[in-house]
Amino acid sequence: MKKIRTFIPAGFTLVEIMIVVAIIGLLAAIAIPNFVSARSKAQANACINNLTKLDGAANQFAIEQGKKTGDPIQFPSDLTPYIKLNAAGSLPGCPAGGSYSDNKVGDQPQCSLGNTVTPGHVMP
User: Which pTM was predicted?
Assistant: First the structure.
């Protein structure tokens, strides 16, 4: 007796493929804003960490040089010996592209981005 073979199509239907693509698109739409937010938070935290290090270097400079609150600081040359330099031999920079300034003993160092970005690049 002969066996009759029935043809069962292999593969996915168009509807199944469209459902998978829609699910992947939905997951991407949820995940991408979270990645952007996490990046900006990480940059702000790194900047605040650098500002804290600069503040500590300014305080150490003031103590060792006998400066008092309000005396001027030659930024960055006065602080260079009191802080770990980056590979280029300069003070660490803001990861978001801002620049730092610290003009007087007792003042907090500032990032040029400040509160113009979210989250802000200011010391608490």
Answer: 0.77
